[in-house]
Amino acid sequence: MTDESFRFLAAALAIGLGALGPGLGIGLLVAKAMEALGRNPEAEGAIRVNMILGIAFAEAIAIYALVVAIIIKFIG
């Protein structure tokens, strides 16, 4: 294997593993928000705001993984 192939493998692992956590986190977050809405529909506004904030923070971690993968691929 060449150095370039190791870079591609490292970039693929960085984005693959880096997106796994946020994907699972977003799925659990939305599931729990829907459960909370089913139990208390009057709190929809607060639940929605907190859910969107949680999704944004989890998505930011996936973007960090993407940036690391791009850096590994093109600069590393």
Task: Characterize the structure shown.
- The protein is 89% helix and 0% strand.
- It has 76 residues and is mostly helical.
Count of beta strands: 0
Low-confidence stretches: none
The CATH topology annotation reads as: F1FO ATP Synthase
The CATH class label is Mainly Alpha
Shape: elongated
Q: Portion of residues in helices?
A: over 70%
What is the CA-atom radius of gyration, in angstroms?
17 Å
SSE order: HH
Mean pLDDT: 93
CATH architecture: Up-down Bundle
List the helices and strands and how they pair.
Layout (H helix, E strand, L loop, with lengths): L2 H37 L4 H31 L2
Helix pairs in contact: 1-2
Please sum up the structure shown.
The chain is mainly α and 76 residues long. 89% of the residues lie in helices and 0% in strands.
Descriptive tags:
elongated, single chain, F1FO ATP Synthase, 76 residues, mainly alpha, 2 helices
